[in-house]
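User: Just a sanity check before I run the rest of the batch. Below are the structure tokens for the first item. I only need the designed sequence back.
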């Protein structure tokens, strides 16, 4: 691929000599080193060299909307700035400037002007001790004509640099790394630090200068936008109520209202993420806290904290690759885990890869939040296939919250048979005492119009036929660390019986498990599976694996277990009546991804007010088929939903991609049942719209339920709306999520709107706020365009 690019060699000091054999231009620039006049030129050959851009030193950041010309002028008058050495990669629409202090600026051309640029993003790399500004050295550049496609800079002694930063235009990076395929309008930063100099490689991005932030993953307190949150820097892998608030779905990808896209290689070793982290953390004022899994954490503070609840955070998105998961602030299940394999080399360097801590981050500058989201989705693989339309058309009924594990064959209004339908965990056969005629029960439910699914997980207890069969064949994960009063490889979870985990890196073990699932289907007639667990039980998050676990095929990242569970096991049943509740690089699997278990409360701390932000976050991350958790919550510790909460929760979910009941509305009161049934009738009126949006989502990953800014990404009022969503481009849903409220304010974007379920109602011309709209308990506020908009231009996907 590089042969099509020209290479030029200039005189270089010793720090570049050992790289000069590459098919790149190897030109070095160090502020105190003698170099030829040619190598001083940091702009592409043939371009007029502009005046040196004066940049403020960290931690100062530029104001939102400030352009490069203004930045140069304002910095020149600032006594704290200096004439910094820098590297410039100038593209047609986007440029990147790197300074000797480790700062980087992503610049995008102003509309209609090639000579003026906006600052789209600003950040820095964390330089280790000894990597001073004066040691900054530009070691190589790759040109295509007059454009610099790739360059590398180093800090530290020339012969043994302490830090390396490789900057690649997105087209070059996409040809090398699959995680950033199809990205454009930006650059990939590949940052490496010598382990002897620092224990982590960190790339920091300023939050405030890029506007409002969205994405990242599911959180216990799902604040929208993310600027409202103070996310403590911590391990970033799928978790059940994680130590920094991270929950069951993570994707290290963020976008902003100004069109900045920041995405990290999802397989970054020991990835840690912080966003506007509490300043106490940076000052070392927190004592170490211990976190278990699931219900073990329910008595702890739910995170992340709100910025408004305390002093502001550090103002940074911190992305870190580390040497391990150890943290002085928190103890967590993978605290002592080390990989049994190592990831492929970040780049082909002479030094051993094990000597470096490395990470890659892509930064792209688009026009707005919607464009950034669509660009992010282009880097992912869409499923091409929609999950079963049965899940769109009618609610799922599950036994969990109503009966927990006390499920039997007695007559119930259920479709999804949850925990403890089998006699022993791991045995994929119905307990004949509870279910004397499972096939007959399934036939009866089919006759009533139900599809039937059962809950499954890859954990096996010792007192099971599955364990006796699988252990002899080596189908389970082992461990070098003996548990307390347990055999090696066994671990404790929410239930009393210790279990072992299926080794998903063993193809024979996966085939054995899938074969048994299909045999269960054939024997009983069930339609699908809930690849998950309720009540904080394991759902394939790696936090549930035993300490120091070992797999047949060594893995370099614990999130690989998550990906294998979804893609290799659940993925065998995609397109069917199935769901999962976790994910890692699994946007291309045609399954519903369920939110983590919700509490039967009103607030944003995993209650009703967290539902819409979590749904919107799923769509931003490329998981449009999002299944909200059970309506009314899980009623943990006897905290059952009230009549009002149950009705409002049903209304919130009524027009979402799928619905799920467990607590029956008629168990509360006849009036509860009547109002919930009325909300379900509204869903029937939009079912064709849901089908159309599901097909679009399968082809392009476009969200089914969309943030308000998707309708008009230039409308600043939409960026902070966290309690409304758009169903496609022509419907706005604005449920009531405040306890006791019978009115609410509703925002309508540009266009002519009317009540979606009252065609004779008045019309409103947006953009406008409707203040104090009547919303009694019987009403779900919903609006549709009088004149439907044209559909978005579809994405063009690569194969």
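Assistant: Here's the designed sequence for the first item:
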């Amino acid at each position: 691929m590089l042969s099509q690019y020209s290479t030029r060699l200039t005189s270089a000091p010793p720090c570049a000599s050992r790289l000069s054999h590459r098919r790149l231009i190897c030109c070095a620039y160090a502020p105190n080193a003698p170099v030829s006049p040619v190598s001083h030129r940091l702009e592409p050959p043939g371009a007029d060299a502009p005046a040196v851009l004066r940049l403020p030193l960290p931690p100062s950041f530029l104001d939102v909307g400030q352009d490069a010309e203004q930045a140069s002028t304002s910095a020149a008058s600032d006594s704290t700035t200096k004439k910094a050495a820098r590297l410039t990669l100038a593209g047609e629409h986007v440029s990147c400037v790197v300074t000797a202090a480790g700062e980087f600026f992503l610049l995008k051309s102003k509309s209609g002007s090639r000579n003026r640029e906006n600052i789209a993003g600003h950040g820095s790399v964390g330089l280790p001790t000894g990597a001073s500004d004066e040691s900054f050295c530009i070691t190589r550049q790759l040109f295509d004509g007059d454009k610099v496609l790739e360059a590398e800079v180093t800090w530290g002694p020339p012969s043994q640099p302490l830090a390396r930063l490789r900057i690649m235009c997105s087209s070059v990076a996409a040809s090398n790394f699959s995680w950033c395929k199809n990205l454009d309008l930006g650059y990939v930063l590949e940052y490496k630090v010598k382990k002897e100099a620092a224990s982590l490689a960190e790339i920091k991005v300023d939050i405030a200068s890029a506007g409002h932030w969205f994405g990242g993953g599911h959180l216990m307190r799902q604040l929208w936008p993310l600027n409202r949150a103070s996310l403590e820097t911590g391990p970033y892998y799928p978790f059940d109520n994680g130590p920094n608030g991270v929950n069951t779905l993570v994707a290290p990808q963020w976008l902003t209202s100004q069109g900045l896209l920041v995405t990290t290689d999802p397989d970054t070793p020991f990835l840690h993420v912080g966003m506007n982290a509490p300043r106490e953390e940076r000052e070392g004022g927190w004592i170490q806290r211990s976190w278990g899994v699931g219900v073990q954490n329910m008595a702890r503070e739910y995170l992340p904290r709100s910025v408004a609840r305390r002093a502001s955070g550090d103002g940074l998105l911190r992305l870190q690759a580390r040497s391990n998961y150890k943290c002085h602030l928190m103890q967590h299940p993978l605290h002592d885990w080390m990989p049994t394999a190592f990831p492929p080399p970040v780049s082909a360097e002479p030094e051993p890869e094990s000597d470096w801590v490395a990470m890659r981050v892509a930064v792209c500058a688009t026009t707005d939040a919607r464009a950034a989201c669509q660009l992010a989705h282009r880097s992912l693989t869409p499923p091409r296939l929609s999950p079963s339309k049965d899940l769109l058309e009618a609610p799922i009924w599950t036994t969990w919250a109503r009966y927990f594990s006390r499920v039997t064959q007695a007559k119930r209004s259920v479709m999804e048979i949850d925990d403890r339908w089998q006699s022993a965990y791991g045995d994929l056969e119905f307990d004949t005492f509870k279910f004397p005629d499972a096939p007959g029960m399934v036939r009866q439910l089919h006759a009533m119009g139900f599809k039937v699914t059962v809950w499954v997980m890859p954990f096996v207890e010792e007192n099971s036929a599955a364990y006796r069969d699988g252990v002899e064949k080596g189908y389970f994960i082992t461990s070098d660390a003996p548990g307390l009063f347990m055999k090696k490889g066994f671990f404790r979870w929410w239930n009393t019986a210790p279990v072992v985990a299926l080794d998903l890196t063993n193809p024979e073990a996966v085939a054995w498990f899938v074969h048994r699932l299909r045999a269960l289907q054939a024997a009983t007639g069930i339609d699908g599976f809930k690849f998950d667990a309720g009540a904080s039980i394991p759902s394939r998050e790696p936090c549930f694996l035993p300490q120091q676990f070992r797999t047949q095929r060594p893995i370099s990242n614990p999130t690989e277990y998550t990906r294998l569970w979804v893609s290799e096991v659940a993925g065998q049943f995609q397109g069917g009546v199935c769901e999962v509740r976790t994910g890692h690089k699994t946007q291309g699997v045609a399954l519903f991804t369920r939110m983590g278990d919700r509490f039967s409360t009103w607030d944003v701390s995993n209650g009703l007010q967290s539902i819409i932000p979590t749904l919107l976050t799923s769509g931003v991350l490329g998981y449009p088929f999002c299944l909200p958790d059970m309506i009314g919550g899980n009623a943990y510790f006897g905290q059952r939903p009230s009549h009002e909460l149950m009705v409002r929760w049903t209304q919130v979910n009524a027009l979402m991609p799928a619905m799920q009941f467990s607590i029956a509305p008629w168990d509360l009161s006849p009036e509860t049942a009547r109002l919930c049934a009325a909300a379900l009738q509204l869903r029937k009126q939009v079912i064709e719209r849901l089908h159309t949006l599901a097909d679009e989502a399968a082809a392009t990953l476009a969200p089914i339920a969309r943030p308000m800014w998707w309708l008009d990404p230039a409308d600043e009022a939409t960026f902070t709306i966290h309690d409304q969503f758009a169903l496609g481009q022509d419907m706005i849903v604005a449920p009531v999520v405040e306890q006791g409220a019978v009115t609410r304010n509703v925002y309508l974007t540009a266009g002519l709107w009317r009540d979606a379920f009252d065609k004779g109602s008045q019309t409103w011309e947006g953009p406008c706020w409707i203040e104090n709209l009547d919303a009694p308990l019987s009403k779900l506020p919903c609006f549709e365009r009088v004149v439907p908009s044209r559909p978005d231009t579809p994405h063009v996907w690569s194969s």
